[in-house]
């Protein structure tokens, strides 16, 4: 079975006043979006886990710990981790942790929780034995 790890900041730790984030975003909206993503993963026959990290020095080690417990085919990094410019160092820590702990896993990026399944699908094999889909032209 295809396994996905969706990594994002714990919604309760997000600074919603950051102008880099969409206006009106709330922890409740993020949680609701994650539930949509989990249903979409399941509809594709994929098993998915959510790994919350904090926007601090524990981000990288937390990702490494999450990846040490299970083998994932794809790690989807949430937009909240990569978009705020002031969080660039944490984004780099997360990417390097994924690269180190799961070198065989594809890495994908969503724009919001609801498009996480599409993000993973861009980099997972078509069917069970097909070629990588890669970037769609």
Question: Remind me, CATH topology?
Answer: Rossmann fold
Beta-strand percent range: 15-25%
Give the SSE string. Answer: EHEHEHHEH
Please tell me the CATH architecture by its name: 3-Layer(aba) Sandwich
In the predicted model, the low-confidence regions spanning at least 5 consecutive residues are 128-137
Q: Which strand order spans the largest sheet, edge to edge or round the barrel?
A: 2-1-3-4
Major sheet summary line: 4 strands, parallel
Tally of DSSP helical segments: 5
Content-based structural category: alpha/beta
3D structure, described in words:
α2 packs parallel to α4 (88-101). 35% of the residues are buried. The protein has a four-stranded parallel beta sheet, sandwiched between helices. The protein has helices at 27-43, 59-69, 79-82, 88-101, 116-121; strands spanning 3-9, 47-53, 74-77, 106-109. It has five helices and four strands. It is 38% helix and 16% strand. The chain is an alpha/beta fold and 137 residues long. The longest helix has 17 residues, at 27-43. The protein is globular and about 40 Å long. The model is unreliable at 128-137 (pLDDT under 50). The chain has one domain: 3-Layer(aba) Sandwich (Rossmann fold).
